[in-house]
Design goal:
Number of helices: 2
Mean pLDDT: 81
Helix content: 25-40%
Structural class: alpha+beta
Strand order of the largest sheet: 1-2-6-5-4-3
Oligomer: single chain
Low-confidence stretches: 1-6
Number of strands: 6
């Protein structure tokens, strides 16, 4: 009888130990599966967000010269405008910065869309991008600017250029 109790007790403990071990393994498997699902979900969300940003940048045509025409209020740009680079990340306001090269003989055509005032400046022209630094580094010497009355809540349009008037950063900020 004592032997049966001991054997029965041993078997019972052994079963209990095996049952606890299986429970723990099932719990571990469940946790690993849950962790895998979370990791896969996060990776998928990151991939979708990255794809969305690429799609919007492509759709948004950040290198499209039409953005510069919009900034400068021009029906079309001089044909010598080239190597455009724009930035437009603002969500609540319109803030567009574009850098580009132009033939200096065409520069005056850029000033026809607004009644600009002119001032002398200094510094790196690339840093004059209102949304973000854009374009090549160049020595800025002139800024043409206007606060259009057509911007209902205020704003600014400006052009920053080098001495030769061949490198330009154009900005449009509209609240």
């Amino acid at each position: 009888m004592v032997q049966a109790l001991i054997t029965g007790g041993f078997c019972h403990n052994r079963r209990w130990q095996l049952g606890a071990w299986w429970k723990m393994m099932r719990s571990l498997k469940t946790r690993l599966k849950s962790a895998g699902i979370v990791i896969a979900s996060v990776a998928g969300a990151v991939a979708l967000a990255y794809g969305f940003v690429l799609h919007m940048n492509d759709r948004d045509h950040l290198k499209n010269p039409a953005r510069i025409a919009f900034i400068l209020n021009l029906p079309e740009l001089p044909s010598s405008v080239r190597d455009t680079e724009c930035s437009a990340r603002a969500i609540t306001d319109i803030i567009i910065s574009c850098a580009f090269k132009i033939d200096p003989t065409d520069f005056e055509l850029l000033l026809r869309g607004w009644e600009f005032k002119t001032e002398k400046i200094s510094g790196n022209g690339r840093e004059y991008g209102m949304d973000a630094p854009v374009g090549l580094d160049f020595k800025a010497v002139t800024r043409h600017f206007v606060h259009p009355t057509s911007f209902k809540h205020g704003g600014l349009v400006n052009l920053v250029t080098n001495q030769e008037r061949s490198l330009v950063v154009a900005n449009r900020f509209e609240e």
